Amino acid sequence: MNGTFLLAKIGWRNLWRNPRGTLLTALALGLGLTLLLVSLGLLDGGHEQMVANGVRFGAGHIVIQAKGYQDSGSQELSLPSGIVFATQEFLQGGAMAHTVSGVSPRLLASGLLTSSTNADGVRVMGVIPKDERAVSLIPERMVEGTYLSDDQRPGVVIGADLARKLAVKIGTKLVLMTQAVPSPDAKATDASPGEMQSTLLRVSGIFRTGIQAIDSHVIQVPLPEVQKLLGVPDGVNQIAVLLEREGDSLVVAQGLRKALAGAPVEILPWRESMPALAQLFVLDDAFNYVMNGVVLAMVGLGILNTVLMRVLQRRFEFGICSALGLRPAQLGLMIVGESLALTSISLAFGLVLGLSVQHFFATHGLDLRWFFKSSPPPALVFDPIIYARLSPTRIASSIGIVFLTATVISIYPALKAARTKLPGALKVF
To answer: Which of 14, 199, 250, 342 sits at 20 to 30 Å (Cα–Cα) from 31?
Structure first.
């Protein structure tokens, strides 16, 4: 025990024989850890924001829809009557109540929206305004006018790109045309199945999400108006569920599958209902891990270069130690101790600097508009400001990986020191 302590003491003193080199090396390696922590924080924060925005622009953390709707997208596939009530009863009562942020039934269809100057194909979303506000980000992205209201005349909210193409503004009248569909659960209404139906709507609001596919094609109309237009009273083909935490998606989905067992519905977490978004995260993770691997390689090569140069410059010293009776294993252990001490200093510096930069990005965010002349391309992110999020697990794993890398890399210089041969090492040139 005393021998090990003596070796550690000698190693620590050796480390400070060249304080400038030690501090510069610690600074370089600490910056590597800082870069690793900041990149992981921005990655996790960006993913968290993209999921939060993606599900609120899409079908929620969990979507309940008619069986086969995910593959076909047919507006003829409606949920059986009673599913909406059963879903709301299950989610808003009991143990699930604290996990759910909102539930919004929807009726989706394709249609043709016509103004006095132009026409364009649109994706119609029939919604209950009060419920949709708790689930979707569209009500929060209004740039002109107001969002739909339950107590106002039937109106329509459209994207900014679509409004520009149709040359419309708030209060402009539009004609929405779509094809009525048969309903297995409801009696026929004024709209005959298969016939084209139209209705007159007035623009009540214009939104801008920054996503071209939404801003140029999606419109939202009160649910009763769309049900009447399609000829499906009480018809709904999708229920969007927004949760307080994304991590509860699988648990809540499993609970819904048990509660609605036997009904012809499909209950999908967001990774299944929006596979393109999930795939984007996989590719982003892969790229980030490659970059982190490069950072670790730089850190490892820095440690290897520093320790190996110290070993080669002290060949005579190791010869003296061997002549005095120091065993090869003890020489190697001393070099490993020096390497770990240098790594510890680097980690302490990198941790302080990394967490400071991380705190800045967590509170102020990284504004991507700095990198673009105007606004960032909508395909990149939903929100131009990314706020970093770094969990204690990420911090611990980053420190552990860097420390393990340094330990493994220090083995080679330690072996070089342990293989010092006498009397060749005592020759003075």
So the answer is: 14
Distance of alpha carbon 75 from alpha carbon 122, whole angstroms: 13
Q: Can you tell me the distance from the alpha carbon of 210 to that of 199, in angstroms, rounded to the nearest whole number?
A: 28
Q: Identify whether the C-beta of residue 143 lies closer than 8 Å to the C-beta of residue 160.
A: yes
Count the Cβ atoms, other than its own, within 10 Å of residue 284: 14
Q: Please report the DSSP string for 310-371 in residue order.
A: HHHHTHHHHHHHHHTT--HHHHHHHHHHHHHHHHHHHHHHHHHHHHHHHHHHHHT-EEGGGG
Describe the crossing of helices 392-409 and 328-363 by its angle, rounded to 10 degrees: 150
Cα separation of 130 and 104, whole Å? Answer: 9
What proportion of the chain, given as a percentage, has pLDDT over 90? 16
pTM value is 0.72
Q: Is the Cβ–Cβ distance between 330 and 417 less than 8 Å?
A: no
263 within 8 A of 83, measured Cβ to Cβ: yes
| 265-269/196-207 β-pairing | unpaired
**Token reading at 8:** 């550690």
Backbone angles phi, psi at 400, to 5 degrees: -65, -40
Strand ranges inside 146-222, DSSP E: 155-159, 173-179, 196-207, 218-222
Distance CA(364)–CA(106), nearest Å, equals 36
Q: How far is CA 354 from CA 31, 197, 271, 292, 399, in A?
A: 8, 61, 32, 14, 11
Contact (CB, 8 A) for 269 and 61: yes
Residue 420 exposed, middle or buried by CB count within 10 Å (0-12, 13-18, 19+): buried
How many Cβ atoms are within 10 Å of 164's Cβ, its own excluded? 13
Q: Which of 390-393's residues contact partners 24+ apart within 8 Å by CB, and which partners?
A: 390/37, 390/40, 390/41, 390/44, 390/45, 390/358, 390/362, 391/44
Kindly report, residue by residue over 300-351, the tens digit of the pLDDT: 787 777 777 777 777 777 777 777 777 777 777 777 777 788 888 888 998 9
12 three-state secondary structure:
helix
Hey, what amino acid is at 96?
A: M
Q: Where are the domains of the chain?
A: 2-53+278-426, 63-270
Burial of 184: CB neighbours in 10 Å, binned 0-12, 13-18, 19+: exposed
| Contact between 80 and 186 (Cβ < 8 Å) | no
Residue 428: how many other CB atoms lie within 10 Å:
4
Tokens (6 digits) for 134: 């708790």
Structure token digits, residue 194: 């298969």
